[in-house]
């Protein structure tokens, strides 16, 4: 398939990538733009490891052809908070030690961030429902839920 | 066929003959390097090892950097498995660090002219009589080739001012929340992206691929074929993905044989040819013969289902090969790769890099071997092999299916008299390089000049590991254990968390409840009646107390609770727990509440994280998981056909660490798997009034039993 140039707005920066129109955003973020925080987990939209925010909504980047993104802004986990300045949710995950291998956590952070923006004070059931499409294999579910609730409480207190 | 039991495998890493500098080094910038042959799998070992070294040397954890699993830089400590890393590598690091501390203080005493007993240490600075000098200044004059002091033992758990026993945040977690952190994220200059094209079934062999059509359809990718090992490589990852998908339509395969139908695992396994071993301890006890019980249990094959499909990288330069892998045993992997490629092991370097959680022998070693084959073909360009989700669920080894049958008779006083357990299992260990000449790579078996899979008949009984926890920890006067090792299972089986301990504890702890019911005794009381080990009793009593066992508060309609206990391998951590379940068309586990005694604890939160995570994962195995296949191939090949527990299904978990005695550390990584399955099964038996003895306890089974 012929390759074309696409202009993406990623984490507040405009970036050009050259790819065939059907290329999943996941590969472009990771390999062309060096944003490795977005993880490959299944490539079939079933696990949530590759979630990014597109136009503020949590989307599966493995199921998002680059041509479909258009002008919508993309936020990856790197854009939500870096090592030096963690986001509230990233900090809450550290505070709860809510991870074992950590591979699924980028997707959890993206999904959780979308939830907290839309619903700043979710119930535990709302957190679990929001995260239901994100798989965790190490069994960190209870701690991840606690971290999202902690971040919500912190945001509410601020 | 019968075998006698050979000696257990040797332990590595605790020898007193290795030099300090193999484990500990003082580096520029005031950092302390700790080298370990054990690797980070998400279990927190890197943090615990850093804590041990930092404690012994009285430096902050922030100064410690840990090098893990590197065949050119770290000691060979075999596999990171069997919940042994603290017991072995932790002790080795403790000994090396305590020896380094002694050498440094002796040097400081000389330099400062102050007796060693008047020196103290503050974050690596040695202070005495108003003078000060730091480790890094002292280190140049110290001979770290000195052997480690082998008599150093675990410190008293009450030792003040030390980091052991404190909660220290995982040192690797922060980086995993913010960007590149995993093997999948390594970018090497000039790297080719590769996908391996797996055959349609395990035994299929390649007839032909229309290479001309491939070249015209996928001009950006290159095809590699050696026998039935097929791969595509490209400069762009998506080009490789598309080409790999496209090859399927251009390839003709010859099927090598059908998979058998399995109506029930218990029945199927009993019909297989077996190598048998019976062991007996104690003497025939007097029982009331009228009270004899027998029951059969089974578990299906279970997949690792790692959240990250396996990845391996390799580069071939000037006859030397470098491999990056998330393998649990980099030295064993190195030897196996060298054997396949006909190389000297010293010309192969394997470097461990973290991946997603690894619960045993998954696809990581295979991906590394595939990367090595492709790196040789495309030298000197580095190659990165990425498995697909389907590859991971179909081609990683599985935890073996197992059947366990237990019978026991009871005394008039309601105690167990004669106990007999019989188990049927494939091997629980079949790792590349596990024993010399065992290779066991899918790719190597497919080559024109193949290195075939090893015959499981050649695996000594001591390594098969289906017998973990087959002999209960309970006080039993007469125990007979019979193992049927099944070498010809149609599936590729190897190590999965807890190995045989999962099915054995599920069966034993289910059966304990059946016996308790037979003598009309409370399940917790019945267990205590057969437990004299004070640590076991304390864990059982604490778990029951924490959950409010027996207070009747949760006995509402459709809710039920169950209890279970085990000490993993009878040598590692003790775990007891209560499962609270709700039973509708399917079982929902509401809460898992329990206690753990892990001896001396390095990092309490690390212990709890492992126990909690293991319990939730075991709930997933127990309720949902089963590898399925048709007559040709594995059909549980996606997250839809191999579902795991989701957030709306995951229980609340609460565990407490008990045991203030100064016992040596005992491993926790696999300790909650078996007890969790049994506690859930026991709760379901109470709630349903029918006992389900075959896992998984899924919707299909609940509906079947509910309609009885």
Kindly describe this structure:
The complex is a heterodimer of chains A (158) and B (708). Chain A has 158 residues and is of the alpha+beta class. Chain A is built from 6 helices and 5 strands, in the order E-E-H-E-E-E-H-H-H-H-H. A 5-stranded mixed sheet of chain A has the order 2-1-5-3-4, with helices on both faces. In chain A, helix 3 crosses helix 6. The N terminus of chain B is likely disordered. The relative contact order of chain B is 0.11. In chain B, helix 1 links the parallel strand 2 and strand 3. Helices cover 29% and strands 23% of the residues of chain B. In chain B, helix 1 runs parallel beside helix 2, helix 5 packs antiparallel against helix 6 and helix 13 packs parallel to helix 17. Chain B has 18 helices and 26 strands. The chains are: A alpha+beta (158), B alpha+beta (708). The interface between A and B is large, with 56 and 62 residues.
Strand order of the largest sheet of chain A: 2-1-5-3-4
Average residue pLDDT of chain B: 93
User: Which class do the helix and strand fractions of chain B yield?
Assistant: alpha+beta
Number of strands of chain A: 5
Instruction: Work out the strand percent of chain B.
Output: 15-25%
| Main sheet overview of chain A | 5 strands, mixed
Beta strand count of chain B: 26
Task: Give the secondary structure arrangement, pairings included.
The complex is a heterodimer of chains A (158) and B (708).
Chain A: E1 3-10, E2 13-20, H1 25-32, E3 51-54, E4 57-60, E5 73-75, H2 77-80, H3 88-96, H4 105-118, H5 124-130, H6 141-157
Parallel strand pairs in A: 1-5
Antiparallel strand pairs in A: 1-2, 3-4, 3-5
Chain B: E1 24-27, E2 31-36, H1 45-57, E3 64-68, H2 85-112, E4 120-122, E5 125-128, E6 131-134, H3 135-139, H4 173-176, E7 192-197, E8 205-209, H5 211-217, E9 221-226, E10 229-234, H6 237-250, E11 251-254, H7 265-270, E12 275-282, E13 288-299, E14 302-303, E15 311-317, E16 320-325, H8 330-341, E17 348-352, H9 364-377, E18 383-386, H10 389-395, E19 398-399, E20 402-410, E21 416-425, H11 442-446, H12 461-464, E22 478-485, H13 500-518, H14 523-529, H15 534-547, E23 559-567, E24 574-583, E25 587-597, H16 604-624, E26 652-657, H17 673-688, H18 699-706
Parallel strand pairs in B: 2-3, 7-18, 16-17, 21-22, 25-26
Antiparallel strand pairs in B: 1-2, 4-5, 5-6, 7-10, 8-11, 9-10, 12-22, 13-20, 14-19, 15-16, 15-18, 20-21, 23-24, 24-25
Helix pairs in contact in B: 1-2, 5-6, 13-17, 16-17
